[in-house]
Write a structure and sequence with these properties.
Strand content: 15-25%
Helix content: 40-55%
Structural class: alpha+beta
Order of helices and strands: HHEEEEEEHEEHHHHHH
Distance between the termini: 48 Å
Radius of gyration: 18 Å
Length: about 200
């Protein structure tokens, strides 16, 4: 699949650039395990009760991870282009996930199957490094998100998200952004207005 001019080789190179140095042969190996996936807006990537078996690299689109509590959907994470997403607990325990993943826009992902990645990591130190760096990044992001929600004001949470993921703020529905930042849509609206007015001064 090459609907937007991005090949599996391009994805392998970008993953190597970001996470680990690789030789031509190592890029061949990484390219060989990548699986292209395409989703329409609103289509589920992973449902509650599924087992997550892949790490996903977003080539195009917007992905929302969420869970349901007391009949209400709560946004856990959102990913745009050149971002990793996964349900990490389900991935490692190989148990059904409580998280769900949905495409909020027409979305192209490349799946990196955990089983294939681990098989290659045993034989190749640079692929092992890539695997470790991806997991490190995911855990650090989770910790930063948890700390932000615990310790920072609504204004600071929003400002950090704007700085870290401006495309996300522009493209994701406000109700999902509010849920992700653990505030009501009304609070988010006030924070956004305040930020805009502050920016004009």
């Amino acid at each position: 699949m090459n609907t937007i001019g991005i090949t599996p080789r391009d994805v392998a190179r970008e993953l190597a650039r970001r996470y680990s140095t690789m030789t031509h042969d190592e890029l061949d190996v990484l390219e060989g395990i990548l699986v292209p996936l395409k989703y329409q807006k609103g289509e589920m990537i992973l449902k509650e009760g599924d087992v997550c078996r892949n790490i996903y690299w977003v080539v195009r689109g917007l992905v929302r991870q969420f869970y349901t509590k007391n009949g209400k959907e709560l946004t856990e994470y959102m990913a745009t282009e050149n971002t990793i997403c996964m349900c990490i607990e389900s991935l490692f325990h190989e148990e059904p996930t409580h998280l769900q993943m949905m495409a909020l826009e027409p979305t192209i992902l490349y799946a990196i199957p955990k089983a294939s990645l681990e098989q290659q990591a045993i034989k190749n130190v640079n692929i092992q490094m890539l695997y470790r760096k991806i997991l490190e990044e995911s855990l650090i992001l989770s910790q930063k998100q948890a700390d932000m929600l615990r310790f920072e004001s609504a204004q600071d949470r929003y400002a950090k998200l704007v700085k870290r993921a401006p495309q996300l703020v522009l493209r994701a529905p406000l109700v999902y952004i509010a849920s992700y930042l653990q505030m009501t849509p009304e609070t988010l609206s006030r924070v956004r207005t305040s930020a805009l007015l502050g920016g004009d001064r």
